[in-house]
Every structure is written in structure tokens, then in C-alpha cells.
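dumping this here before i forget
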Amino acid sequence: MTARVDRELNPAELEAFGQELDALRQRTLADLGEADARYIRRVRAAVRWCCWSGRALLMFGWFPPTWLLGTFLLGLGKILENMELGHNVMHGQYDWMNDPEFAGRQYEWDIVGPADFWRHTHNHVHHTYTNVLGMDDDVGYGVVRLFPEQRWKPFYRWQPLWVTIQALLFQYAVAIQHLRLDKLVKGRISKEEVRPLARQFGAKLARQWGKDYLAFPLLAVLLGANALAVLTGNLVANLLRNLWTFLVIFCGHFTEKAAVFAPEVLEGETRGHWYLRQLRGSSNLSGGPLLHILTGNLSHQIEHHLFPDLPARRYAELAREVRLVAQRYGQHYNCGTLWGQFATVLRRIWIYRLPAAGMA
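structure:
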């Protein structure tokens, strides 16, 4: 694999680098206003329209093209809710609106994982320790070796299979991550510590399954519609959302030129160091407005890691300036097409399943 080439920055350059990005963040914060509020309200309306239109069409059963169109619209609504609405709202990007519906600490999204789990494992742990081995659990999610710096374990031989299962069941994977079952098995935490989290997960799981796989199929029966068509439509819509979310997240973190870091990097880490780590550990996707919206603007993963609490709709304009800052300081700005980046992810999954891969 081709190693990324970045110029090492001296302390003065690191401080200036951090100041430039801080200033960019402050300028954007000062410019937030009604256009941003109007945008997120339109996203919320689009989510509702897609989901309810999709569910209504599924009530017509298998008759083409209602099942296909209904499943597609429901899946689209779930993707938009997960990526552009829920994920971004939970980062506190719209807290300044003082609208309870867009309050980051209150929002509950439409997946089996409780929002509180995500706010801890993602917003706090991942964004604090981005790509730091042993600190950021998102590096391989405990079941995948994606970098030669990760210590090899025998079950990595089968990681193409583990990744496939993870992609199909991605919402469950990110929820279970918070339970820290690996620590439980190793005796590092007790059952008493895990039990309340498991109950919280079970309650959210029951609500989600009850809605998608019980309530709406039962409604179909009451309306004389085809309950099986409704059930399978919900199932496929959730599957589409799982696969898309997996694709976007893996392409944002584990591409060919994404970097990982030893824990020692955190010692005395300054603001400039932190910004530099976010830049080097992230990958962007090139594309048009539709791609950016469907990814929740995580196609601008670099900008998201630099400025997680800024409205994601601003990332496209921020990206132009961030790229220029990176160039001035001799830093590689990792950007490529969706399928080009994903190809490098697949290559990593295949190569690093073996113990000696990349250790020359």
C-alpha cells in the first residue's frame, strides 16, 4: 500500500495550524442562523414524508411497483434520519436553536442502539481518541484488523466473513459495542456493570422491533393489507440503512491513506496536534450534493472530525478552506470517490487478515 506523506510540523507551525482552524471554526459559528435552522427542519420534514409515504405504499402489498417503491422510500427515510438528522443533531450541531426537537442530549434516533450509547462511544470516545490504538474502539470495532499496527489475533483470518455480518447487522454492532462484552469476558468489568446497559439496550430493541415488525404488520392485518409485504419491506429498509451506514463509516476511517496512532501521541497533545490527528486519520468522499446529503455530509469526514459540533451542511464550504490550510502546511488531504475509497478498504480487510501482512 502507498504510505501517505506528511511534513512533520515544528511547535510553532503546529500552533499556527491550530489557530487557523480555530479561526475558521469561530467564523462559521458566528455565521450560523436562520438558513441553518430552516435546512434541518426541511430534513426532518423529508424524513417524515419518506417514511410515511413508504409505509403507506407497503400497505398495497406486493403489487409492483408499490412494494419496491415503498421499501425504497422507507429505507431512504431511515438513512436520512440516521445520517443527516440524528447523527448530526446528537453532536449538538443545532443546540443553538434552543428547540427541544433538535437538542443533542435529548434526541433519540430510529435504530436499535440507544442514543445515549452513541453519545458516549462515538461523540466522546471516538472523537476524543480518533484512530488511537487501544483507545478508539472504532478502529476495527474489535473484530477487524485494518492496519498493520494492530496486533494480530487468530480470528482475524476470517475477517471478511466478520465484516460481512457486521455490515448486514450494523445497527446492532454499534449498539453492542457500548456493552463492552469483550471486557466482561476478560473479567475487566462485572456483570453488575453491564446489566443496566443490557436492560437499556433490550428496551430500545423491543421498541424498534415492536414498531417495524409487529405494529405495522398488525396494522396491515386490520386494514386488510398484506402483513408479510409490510414486514419484509421494513426488514429490507433496515438492511439498506445498515449497509449504507457501514459503507460510509468504513470509507471515512479505514481507507488506504488513513493513519492510526500509538497512545503516546496523546501525551502533551495540543490543540494543533489534535487537529493534525483528525486530518491524518480521516478520509473524504468526492461527489455531488445528493451524495453529501445521503451520507449526512460524512463524505466530508475530515471536516466532521475537525468540527463535529458545526452543522454538517457547512462542511462542503469548510472543505475548500481546510484543503488549502492542509496544503500550506504540507499535509495530505485524503479525498477520493466512494467506490475508489471503498476498494482500498476492502483491500485492507483482505490483506491484514494475515499475521505478517504489512510488517516488512
